[in-house]
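note to self — DONT lose this again. spent like an hour looking for the file last time. sequence + predicted structure for the chain T wanted, 304 res
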Amino acid sequence: MPAALSLLGIVRPGDRLVAFADDFADAFARGFDGRDVVLVGDSCAEVFVAASEGFDASLDAEGPHLWWFVNSIGWFGLRVPDLRALGRAAREAHALLVVDNTVAGLFGCDPLRLGAVLSLEALDRVCAGKAPRKLVAVSVARSQLKRHRVDAAAECAHALLEGCGLAKLDLPVNEADVLERGLDTLDVRMQAHFDRARALAEYLAANEMVRNVRYPGLNSHPDHSVATGILEHGFGPAVEFDLIDCTACEFFSILPDEFRTSPAGGATTRLSAPRGKQGSTIRLFAGTDNPLVVASTLDNALRN
């Protein structure tokens, strides 16, 4: 998402970009030369306001701009920021709030309705894991068009970004077909992702072989109360947990290969190691596969 935001070209030299992005830190170090990039350690509005002090944000389309970047669900721990509070604070600070909405998706969260100016979403899950290349949807709040230089992004609304450039909706026929088929079944599939993630989170929370289960739908999650007012149709498709007796590499070596090699956003539950394979943290993205079978497979791997 930092690369997608950079490709849009609306965060210009002289601007300040404030981001809570601990797992995107390296990405923000690239692609934003000449910008004042400030990485903060919390997603609360007060921290973003403090990180913006001393910067004179302009209301003129050509003046220096202040940008705030957060995820609707993201970072280590699957944190959920209070987008309403951030949206209000951004307006008062003359900042432009950008939200990476990939994990929740539009099905699970509408950042523009909560005060964001831009919403970015990778379309892996929309395309049911069948996209032939990396696609990102970019949506612009209607209320912000022609204001604060966001008019420069107006032509990018609902556009598609790929890794090497910007493409409009005139996609090749095969890619357009994949996207159209995915949209036809999106709500049903997304609800299945969300429901299975909740079932797996509850299974893991009761499992003595793991610890620190992090899922916004659990009362133990630090942002649970915020998530209930921000997220829709559930609490997203992702769960994080820590292994007790082995590394992620050792755990993956016991699991069937499809848990690691299945396409992102597809039907099969997918596991990754956000802190590296020698760490103990596992991030799970629920598929539409049977959660009882997934839980049994995880249980067997944890016992070996």
